[in-house]
User: What shape does this take?
Amino acid sequence: MKEKRDIDYPIFLSVILLVIFGSVVISSVSVYDSYRITKRLVEAGSIAEPNNWRFILRNILQAGIGLVAMVIAIKIPYLWWKKHVKTISVIVLIMLLLVLVLGVKINGAR
Assistant: This one.
């Protein structure tokens, strides 16, 4: 018999509320920088007009991608994660080391 799996709704709601709170904080502190960057993009001919929404739109897109990844991760059985944890950890460690070796330095960070 297949066991019924359910989402832990208090944790799920906490994650969603933290993402919303983070988006509000990002939008409130990045208005000036967003306008300044988009104004340069207008001068370069990349976009039509400057706006204050550059960072919040990027954040919403990234939150959406994270939500899709979270739903996929929830659908994978726990035992699969337990079985493959060592392989996944080695792959992640190799990718982190590749950033140090192959990564491009931008503003002092890789």
Summary: The radius of gyration is 20 Å.
